[in-house]
Amino acid sequence: MTSNTVSGLLALLGIDQSHSRPRVSNDNPYSEAQFKTLKYCPAFPGTFGSVDDANVFCDQFFRYYNNEHRHSGIGMHTPASVHDGSAAEIHARRAATLNAAFLAHPERFHGRRPCPPPLPSRVWINKPPTTQEVDPSPQTTQVA
Predict the structure, then answer these.
(1) Is residue 118 assigned to a domain?
(2) In the chain, where does DSSP find H-type helix?
(3) pTM of the prediction?
């Protein structure tokens, strides 16, 4: 994308060029991460015979990825369960099952009560470095 023709067309269309990927404000990190996950999937064929072949593969892949695959970054839940709100109920059932197992056989757990992975309050692709929290309380000012 260094030719004058492409650069000129992008400028004419009001499209900003970005050659840097990570932590770029006008980039879509979720889309980039999803594309990388798709590309490195063991079932990914590398090339497709047709657009229809690509559509069939992607339809199957995204259905599995969103509805069946448990993600470590979201407490071993599926994206669908987090999105539709059922993850909290699933988390509670997991906790109850682990608690029942602990009560039935505490010796299996070396005295430590098991608990399911917590649901995150925020999800990151590239977590920013932690910074000091700023006091969110509103400041009052005198109006004359």
Answers:
(1) no
(2) 4-13, 29-39, 51-67, 79-84, 87-104
(3) 0.59
In tens, the pLDDT along 78-88 reads 999 999 999 99
Biggest CA-to-CA distance, the chain = 74
Q: Compute the distance between CA of residue 142 and CA of residue 144 in angstroms, rounded to an integer.
A: 6
Task: Return phi, psi of residue 103, to 5°.
Answer: -65, -35
Query: 106 with 100: CB under 8 angstroms?
Result: no
Residue 44 counted as domain residue:
yes
Q: What's the CA gap between 73 and 120, in Å, rounded? A: 8
- Is 101 part of a structural domain of the chain? yes
How far is it, in rounded angstroms, from Cα 135 to Cα 44?
48
N residues, the chain: 144
10 in any annotated domain: no
Which residues constitute the domain of residue 59?
27-109
Count the domains in the chain: 1
